[in-house]
Amino acid sequence: MLFNSLNFALFLPVVFILYWFFTNKNLKLQNFLLLISSYFFYACWDWRFMFLLLFSTLLDYFTGIKMQDSKNQSWKKFWFWLSVSINLGFLGVFKYYNFFAESFAESVSHFGWSVSPLMLNVILPVGISFYTFHGLSYVIDIYKSKIKAERNFVDYAVFVSFFPLLVAGPIERATHLLPQIKKQRTFDYSRAVDGLRQILWGLFKKIVIADNCAVFANEIFNNSADMTGSALVLGALFFTFQIYGDFSGYSDIALGTARLFGIDLLRNFAFPYFSRDIAEFWRRWHISLSSWFKDYLYIPLGGSKGGNWMRIRNTFIIFIVSGFWHGANWTFIVWGLLNALFILPSIILKTNRNHLEIVAKGRNLPTLKEISQMALTFVLTVFAWIFFRAENIGHAVEYVSGIFSRSLFTFPGLGTMENFWTTIVLVVIFLLVEWQGRENKYALEGMNKINRKAVRWFSYVIILLTIYFYGYFGENVEFIYFQF
C-alpha cells in the first residue's frame, strides 16, 4: 500500500477513527489496533512476507528476554549472537546472496574457471533492511544493558512494525519509540493538524517533485549513450531532486502520519542540499541511518578517539557498509567510497563539526562564502548520485565520460520534452519554499505561526491544486527506498 495511493487515503482515516473514537482511550486496545493495522498494511504488499516479519519480531522478542534473564555472560552472549546471526542471515540470503554468488563466479572466471552458482529466484521483502535494523538496535541495547527487555509482545511488535515507518523508515530506536508506545496517548488537535501539514508537504515532494523529475531522469539515464554531455548533467540533477523528493517525502508522510496517532518518530532529513560540506550533508541526509551506523559501528570501532589512521579507517568502513546496506550492487559501494573520499579532508583537518547550525540562520540570504560552500558540496553530491543511479559500474563510467566531452557545452535539446520547463519551474519554487522554511523541522512547519487563518488555508489549497494539476500520476510511482 503506497502512501500516495487511494488505498492509503481510505486506510488512514479508518484507522484514525477507530484509534481515537472506538478504543475508549484504552492503551492496550490502541496498541493492538496499531499492530493489526500495521500487519494489514504490510500484507497489502505480499501477505507471505508477513510471516518473515513476524518471525523476526518473535526472534528478537524472545532472545531479548533470554538475554535479560541470563545469569551469566556466556549465555547472554549466546542469545545475542543467535539473534544477530539469524537477522543478518535472513538479510544476507534475501538481499545479498545472488550478488555474492555472481561476484564469485565472475572473479574465478578470470582464472579460467567456469562456475555456475545456484541463484535464488526470490523477491526482496519490502522493508527488510529497515525492520531488521530496528530489531538489531533493540538486542544490541539490551546486550549493552542500555535498556531492559520488553515483556509485552504487542508493545514490542508495534515498535518493529508500526506502519508509517515499516517499509522505509526512519530507523527507530527502542529507547525512543517504545516508551511512547507504552505511554497513555490523548488526542491533541494542534499536533494532528501539524501532522496533516507535514503529510501534505511530503505528498508534494513525492508526487510533484520526485515523480516529475523521475520521468526525465529515467529517460536520460536509460538512453545515456545517445545524450549530450549537457543533457547528462541535467539527468544527474533531475535524479538528485528525484531521490530527495522521494525519500524525504516518504519520511515527511511517515512522521506526519505517526503524529496523528500521538507518536513522534525520529527526524530523517534536515534540508541536506543546503549543506556547506559533506560532513554536514551526512548529518542532514537519512539521519536515522547515519546515526545508527555511528552508534552501532563507528563508535564501537573506536570512533574518532584514535589518530588520523583510525579515523580514516573507521570512516571508510562506515561509508562502505552504508553503501552496501542500500543494495547488492558495486555501484552502491563506489557511491559510499566516493562520499568517504569527499569527507576525508574534514576528518583529517578536524573540521567535520564546523557547521552544526543551518546555513544563514536568522538571515534571508547566505554570504558569498556560504554560497560557494553549498555549491561545491552540491556538485560533489550530484556526482556521487550518478553512481547510485547507474545500472552498473560500466554504465556509471560511460555516463561520467559522456559528461566530460565536447558536447557538455552544447544545448541539451530537452526543452521540447513534455512538461520539461514546468518541472524546472516547480523545482525552483520547491527550493525557495525549502529555503524559507529551513530553520524548521520541515518546510511548512512555520505556517502555524501565521495568525490569519485565511492565509494558511489559501496556501494549503494552492499546494493541493498544484498536486492535482502538476503531479505525476502515471506508472512506476513506488518510493525508491522500497528496494532497499
What does this structure look like?
- The model has no long low-confidence stretch (mean pLDDT about 90).
- This protein is mostly helical.
- It has 17 helices and no strands.
- It folds into two domains: about 5-185, no CATH class; about 190-275 and about 355-484, no CATH class.
- The chain is about 65% helix and about 0% strand.
Give the beta-strand count.
0
The helix/strand series, from N terminus to C terminus, equals: HHHHHHHHHHHHHHHHH
Query: Level of helix content?
Result: 55-70%
Low-confidence stretches: none
First and last CA, distance: 16 Å
What is the strand content?
under 5%
Number of discrete helical segments: 17
**Main sheet: strands, sense, barrel:** none
Number of domains: 2
Mean pLDDT: 91
Query: What is the C-alpha radius of gyration, as a whole number of Å?
Result: 23 Å
Give the overall form: globular
Structural class: mainly alpha
Summarize it.
The protein is an all-alpha fold. It has helices spanning 6-21, 27-43, 50-69, 73-109, 128-143, 153-161, 174-182, 189-222, 229-260, 278-284, 287-298, 308-326, 330-348, 368-389, 393-403, 420-436, 453-470.
Index terms:
484 residues, 17 helices, 0% strand, mainly alpha, 2 domains
How is the secondary structure organized here?
Blueprint (H helix, E strand, L loop, with lengths): L5 H16 L5 H17 L6 H20 L3 H37 L18 H16 L9 H9 L12 H9 L6 H34 L6 H32 L17 H7 L2 H12 L9 H19 L3 H19 L19 H22 L3 H11 L16 H17 L16 H18 L14
